[in-house]
Structures are given as structure tokens and as C-alpha cells.
Amino acid sequence: MDSMGVFVWLILVITIISRSHADRNVYPSAGVLFVHVLEREYFKGEFPPYPKPGDTSNDPITFNTNLKGYPDRPGWLRYIQRTPHSDGVLYGSPTAEHVGKPTIIEITAYNRRTFETARHNLVINIMGTEEFPLPYQAEFYIKNMNVEEMLASEVLGDFLGAVKNVWQPERLNAINITSALDRGGRVPLPINNLKEGVYVMVGADVPFSSCLREVETPQNQLRCSQEMEPVITCDKKFRMQFHIDWCKISLVDITKVVPVHNSRPDPGTGVLPDIGEYNPPSESLKSRDYFADFLVTLAVPCAVALVLFVILGYSMCCRREGVEKRNMQTPDIQLVHHSSIQKSTKELRSMSKHREISWPLSTLPVFNPVSGEVVPPIHPDSYESTSMPLMQTQTNLQNQIQIPQQQPSGKWYS
User: Fold this and answer.
1) Which of 253, 274, 295 is the last residue of a domain?
2) Which pairing describes strands 116-124 and 23-26: parallel, antiparallel, or unpaired?
3) Where do transmembrane segments lie in this chain (predicted)?
């Protein structure tokens, strides 16, 4: 590499380092909306170019913002970036207590293609003015806007122009912008181009107009309680571009708000009072007898359980009446009756086994007309007739005699 190439390379490195460490100063006013756009184009020169010409703008770049020396941003400052291919936005509304205190925000850009980073500082010098905060403040809820859309200068200017036509103040400024998601709103469904909604607080130096006061009428309050849209005469001036939920509008006159001061206790000198010499506990511990604890914890419950087991066993096993005691307590005439009933029952059961019945025709002896032999019945004499079926199937016949078939000569053969 020649000397000219080395010189150009050093110049390029020095330029990148100086750009990555350069501080940008901004001067917002207390009580006025502050918006700072983190442009991706500003950081693209600090990353190596894309191999294909013309595709440099497609590098996905994300930003990380934090207060210098701390992991997060100040409480009044918010940050939003929808996609790695869109610009990031820092926005918020500083208060009077931040006046005169420079706030250094570290901005780190990450190139998701090359995994390289670039960093620079944003110094926020908050200025104080006598005109702010403006005494009359109104907060509008716009349903058809996202916060990054509302932060665009042209959109915010159109909204402030519509408010000025309705309010007619001499001085009008946006005080703060808050996403509905930061107020407990829910993420909308990705259909019908639904938006999450945004709250915009506006301040003016004159009292609220009659159009804005229409929200406080009893008729409109009743309609809002019934989830119906109130009747506002100046709504048509916003409806062309902004859909305002008039039931969520807030009108505040800070001149009539009673300030609440929290009384803080005196922090003191931070030195502990003198309470004498410190006496630590002794190293030797006194012995303790745990026998009484053992009796209360284990021995007493076991003894009670044993006594209950003995009582239950005596009641179940040793207090049974038995047959003899039962017979002794039963009158003799009742025992005689019971005995006679048992004997009669047994006798009837024994007689039922030997009773004579008319046998079905299928069970009578069969006479062979050729041989003259009598086939005995299919059941023995000891067969219990009470369980014999009335009809017998051919498959159940054990002693079935086959009848010889007639031969052509006309003679019978056994």
C-alpha cells in the first residue's frame, strides 16, 4: 500500500472515530414536547458498505438509548422504533426540575447485518421559560393514530392547527404525547388497519372554548356513561384526519389545582447516636434439657393413641354377645317356633327332590318296532327333575338309537 493510500485510510478512520464520539447538543424547553429523530442515514456512513451497490439502505439498524452511566433513560424520556428499517424517535416532556441540568444520552446504533456498532452522545440542555407551563391544558385521545405517526412534524402541526381553530388561543403548544399502550391499552388486532391510539396533551393561555366545554354537559356525560358518542359541534373539524374519543378528553386548569407538598423528614447528620459500649453475646451457650419437649411432642400422643386402641379392641372383641347369650335372653316359645320353622324348611327341600312329575313325551322310553328293544330315558333316576328342561335337543341325546333304513329287497336288518 502506498503512502497516499495509507493517508486516505487514516483520514477515513479519524473521521469515523470523530463522528462516533461527537456530541450533539439540543435545547428543549421545560413544559414543551421534545422530539429527536435518530436517523438511520446519519449512521450508515459509519458502517462498511453493502457488497452489492445500491443496497446500503437495506441494512437493519437498531438503536439503544440510555442515560450516561445508567442502564435506562430518564423517566420523562421515551424511545420508540417499530422496525430495524425505520428511524428511531426520542420524545418526552421535561419538567421544571430538570432545568439547568444537562442530560447526556448515550445512543448506540447496531448494524444487524455486520454486527458492528457506532455510538455518539446526545446532550439535552433543558431551558426554562416564563411562558411555560401554560395554565390551560387539554388532553385528547386520538384513536386512528400511532405514536410515531403523531410525532411526525407535519401530522402534529395539522393537529395543533385544528385545535387552534377550535380554541382560538394566542399561544398553543404540545406538552406531551403518550401511546395508549403506556396507559394500559391493548395491542390492536392486525386487521382493518387498526391503530393503538395516542394521547396528546395541549396547553394554551386562554380558557377553554365553548366547544370543548360541551363534553362536560349532562347530556354528553350521560351518553358517555352509556358508551355512546357525545354530540360535539366542532368534531367535524377533526374528523377529516383525526378521530377523537371525546369521552376521554381531559380539561385541566392548573391555576385552580391545589398543589400538594410532600413533607419529608429531616435526613439528619447520618451519624448513629452514642448508645454505649457494644456487648456481643457470649460464645458459650447454656445447655438445655429437651426431655420435657420429647414427652410433649411424642410420648403423650403415643400414650393417648395406645389407650384409645385398647378401648376400641375391648369393645370390638370382648363385648360380643354370642349365640348362647342370645338364646338365654330369648323366650323359649320363640326358640321353639324358630326351630320348627327351620325343620319344616329342610323337610320341604328334601321332599322336593323326590317328587313325581309327568315326564315330557320327549323323555319317555322309545320302542323300536323292528327289534322290539326299549330304549331307556335319557336321564337317570337320580336326575333332579326340577332342573330338567321341558324340551331336549337332538345334540343332547346320549343314548340315541339309530333306526336302520329299509333296503330295496324289502327286508330289515338290525
Assistant:
1) 253
2) parallel
3) 294-317
Domain tally, the chain:
2
Buried b / exposed e over 135-174, threshold 16 CB at 10 Å, is bbbbbbbbbebbbbebbeeebbeebbebbeebbebeebbb
The residue to which cell 384409645 is assigned: 308
* Same-domain status, 217 and 151: yes
Backbone angles phi, psi at 383, to 5 degrees: -70, 130
Question: What pairs with residue 122 in β-bridges?
Answer: 24, 105
Rounded distance between C-alpha atoms, residue 400 and residue 65, angstroms: 109
> Is there a single domain that holds both residue 142 and residue 62?
no
* Domain final residue, candidates 63, 96, 124: 124
Q: Quick: pLDDT tens for 5-19.
A: 433 332 233 233 334
Look at the chain and count its residues: 414
Quickly list DSSP for 66-92.
Answer: EETTSSS--TTEEEE-SSTTS-EEEEE
The span from the CA of 194 to the CA of 146, in Å, is: 9
**Residues 78-130: pLDDT tens digits?**
999 988 888 899 999 888 888 888 889 999 999 888 888 888 899 999 888 76
As a whole number of angstroms, the distance between CA 297 and CA 293 comes to 6
| CA 303 from centroid of its chain's CA atoms | 52
What is the C-alpha separation between 276 and 64, in angstroms, rounded?
53
Gap between the Cα atoms of 146 and 153, Å rounded = 14
Determine, yes or no, domain membership for 336: no
